[in-house]
Amino acid sequence: MTAAQQPIGVFDSGVGGLSVLQALRAELPHERFVYLADSGNAPYGERGDAFVQARTHAITDYLLREHHIKALVVACNTATAAAIHEVRARHPQLPLVGVEPALKPAVAASRTGRIGVIGTRGTLTSAKFARLLATLDGQAQFVVQPCDGLAHAIERSTAQALPTAPDATETRALCARYTGLMGPFGIQNGQIDTLVLGCTHYVFVQDELRGLLGPEVRLIDTGEPVARQTRRLLQAASALAPETGPPTTAITLLTTGALAPLQNAATRWLQLPAQCCATIDLPVGPA
Ligand code: DGL
After folding, report:
1. pLDDT single digits (tens) 91-117
2. Residues 94 and 227 in one domain
3. Is 118:199 a contact under the CB 8 Å cutoff?
4. Model confidence pLDDT, tens digit, residues 152-177
5. Residue 17 CA to ligand 1 centre (angstroms)
6. Domain, as residue range, for 160
7. Among residues 220, 250, 266, which one ends one of the domains?
8. CB of 84 within 8 A of CB of 96?
9. pTM of the predicted model as reported, rounded to 2 decimal places
10. How far apart are CA 153 and CA 160, in angstroms?
């Protein structure tokens, strides 16, 4: 296999990063992908840096060793905040893309200058996020709200083939509780008119959020910019797959947790066949 034909590795604590994979497939339809959901260890958001760093290294090493990935997309804000600097230091040659809450696009989009940011506690209390906020000092008011339990509830909502009423009630209640703590949303002065989805899982509750906040509040996620950045890095490394012929079907989805939830998420959200999913064993422990 030539370098250009090697797959791109993508990982998240669970199924949330599938929202990034969706954008990657749209931007790079001729690339092969290996996606790893660390659902056996999700959620990361309330686990602490040392744990998330150890998992990130174990997953990166596994994807390099077993799948010969040519680039890595860390499709998890929490792992990016805790560990991407370490991955960069360990693998300086590897094209590497992380995700972080899209504050700059939100500043450009907001008219009221009040911007909400939701994410995991790990992301929103990280030094990386504090530095990002500091770069935008004075450009907008940010209302920052960690959403403990929301990513986990979204993981659980994939347990059945079709969404169940109790799952939908739970995710909606969590969205309502956390956005309710943030103050009024809307497009009038003093209201939050833009909400940054600072966790890749939350893309999958955007309909609930829209229902709660109204159609005028803008929701901002990071899938498309991450996909464009991945294209730029591959181009710079002369590692883009040839962009001719039909789109690839070479997408492998792996999970460290139970198989059915990943299959349910893949078919429900990405219209991928259940057969592209498999389980792997990747024990917890320092890399
Ligand atoms: N999807 C992840 C993120 O973007 C992590 C959610 C979690 O595991 O807590 O932060």
Report:
1. 999 999 999 999 999 999 999 999 999
2. yes
3. yes
4. 999 999 998 888 888 889 999 999 99
5. 8
6. 103-220
7. 220
8. yes
9. 0.95
10. 13
